[in-house]
Amino acid sequence: CAGYPGGRGSGSETGGRSEADIISTVEFNHTGELLATGDKGGRVVIFQREQESKHQPHRRGEYNVYSTFQSHEPEFDYLKSLEIEEKINKIRWLPQHNAAYFLLSTNDKTVKLWKVSERDKRPEGYNLKDEDGRLRDPSMITTLRVPVLRPMDLMVEATPRRVFANAHTYHINSISVNSDYETYMSADDLRINLWNFEITNQSFNIVDIKPANMEELTEVITAAEFHPHHCNTFVYSSSKGTIRLCDMRASALCDRHAKFFEEPEDPSNRSFFSEIISSISDVKFSHSGRYIMTRDYLTVKVWDLNMENRPIETYQVHDYLRSKLCSLYENDCIFDKFECVWNGSDSVIMTGSYNNFFRMFDRNTKRDVTLEASRENSKPRAILKPRKVCVGGKRRKDEISVDSLDFSKKILHTAWHPSENIIAVAATNNLYIFQDKVN
Amino acid sequence: GPKRQREQAPRSKVGVGKDTQEKETVIPERAEEAKLKAKYPNLGQKPGGSDFLMKRLQKGVFISPPFSWRLGRQKYFDSGDYNMAKAKMKNKQLPSAGPDKNLVTGDHIPTPQDLPQRKSSLVTSKLAG
């Protein structure tokens, strides 16, 4: 696919990079018109796709900055002596009902509902104040006038409409908007809460896996998502590589699952790393609602909701890392949480890797490709060249050896346009937007 | 008898039996596990919970309030804790800043120098141009 870097990163690749600019989440809205990014500094930047223009056809579909705001700020929990990071963990859009856009953004502790709206008119001709806002002396007013609305330069404002706070003891890893568009859920390591958008001082706890004695803790919740069509159904994944599907009609507290998805482990493959690399870092329903996709450290798996005992498809993301697990454990990379995404038709899945590589798997043709998101390799409108990692033996000219991979360049967050072949890839503090070439 | 060719590290270095070693040539994770255990012999002997969860605890993924400072997430200086820990440390050797430094020891004394600065004032994201 053709690509152009929408990269607006800071500094150079080698140094001078601000940690606050590290992108921590990327999400298209339901039409694909808007693309939101959240970063470690608690800021949200929203890009908007340019309208098609007959006069400049080659500029069709470029994303430009639409709005930017500070969503979360660092806080300090004095009671527990803990700093609460402002890093945005997830952004989820609400479907659009009127001219304004709404999104949920969350850090470790607090979810916020933001309204993003345009203002292109302003009232002029007030009686009691003049145009710069200074109050007029009432005794000097001799006539009355009716204020009128006059056009102004487009201004995009973001305002926080709801703050959903104090409901999570542990760190929020997921938020998911329900298909009823009235409720949403937030999940932390041990609990999942259900909220109504209108009510900020209450939430229902729907999953609680905290053991009575913390010493007995064996697994945590890693991700959760509502079914795209059935508002009573959701799934959550665990650090042990299992997925539970729950039905809220069954009981108020969904501690007992309706379905339990787990692939049996081959005991001869067991090692110290087995449980760590089986931990699921992301779970996503397909658009159809028939499948779920999970990402663990080395693979992406597709599960059929009707079959709990094993996935229907398993894709190797970077199997060559098996011989590097010791050092990946030492440098903590083995705990990296990669996300995964479906394309609009559920035929292709995409996930990130190291060295700014990301991978796509075509579920129908069973072909896969490795691409790289980097400034050196992406010129505007150039075609991305497939990359290859060589595992041992002779290295071909264009290949890169496993030992040369840069593990600090990880692509954890990617997004796919809901209906077109446009993808957004976050490489540390740079955002890349790639599109399919149009002939 | 016939000489056997070994591709793995010499047996004495890793300290595993012959059978396991032959399996290592098949499963890379086992070789990596042996490497890790050779470096950190105390691995797997932490109290309570699995090793994996203990490591997640240290990364601050979830924290039980009474243990928060030992897990390295405390962000302010507590003179009471400091003095208590200092008194305990008098007769012990300070743990070396080796590979174990990130694991739970309970003996590391936080000093004001260890603590990161509070965040500076907010700046616009570079993504916004």
UniProtKB/TrEMBL annotation, chain A:
Q: What are its GO cellular component terms?
A: protein phosphatase type 2A complex
What GO molecular function terms would the record report? Answer: protein phosphatase regulator activity
| InterPro entries for this protein | PP2A_PR55, PP2A_PR55_CS, WD40/YVTN_repeat-like_dom_sf, WD40_repeat_dom_sf, WD40_rpt
Against PROSITE patterns, the record matches this protein to: PR55_1 (PS01024), PR55_2 (PS01025)
SMART domains noted in UniProt: WD40
Q: Does the keyword Repeat apply?
A: yes
For whether the record's keyword set contains Repeat, the answer is yes
Give UniProt keywords alphabetically.
Answer: Repeat, WD repeat
Which family does the record assign?
Belongs to the phosphatase 2A regulatory subunit B family.
- What is the protein named? Serine/threonine-protein phosphatase 2A 55 kDa regulatory subunit B
Automatic annotation (TrEMBL), chain B:
The GO annotation for biological process reads: cell division
Q: Which InterPro entries match?
A: Endosulphine
Keywords attached to this Swiss-Prot or TrEMBL record, sorted alphabetically, are: Cell cycle, Cell division, Cytoplasm, Mitosis, Phosphoprotein, Protein phosphatase inhibitor
Q: Which domain of life is it from?
A: Eukaryota
- Basic and acidic residues bias located where? 1-10
GO cellular component: a single term: cytoplasm
Q: Which portions of the sequence form the region Disordered?
A: 1-25, 91-129
| Provenance organism | Apteryx owenii (Little spotted kiwi)
**Which GO MF term does the entry hold, naming one?**
protein phosphatase inhibitor activity
What is the name attached to this protein's record? Alpha-endosulfine
The primary location reported for this protein is: cytoplasm
User: Hey, which family's this protein in?
Assistant: Belongs to the endosulfine family.
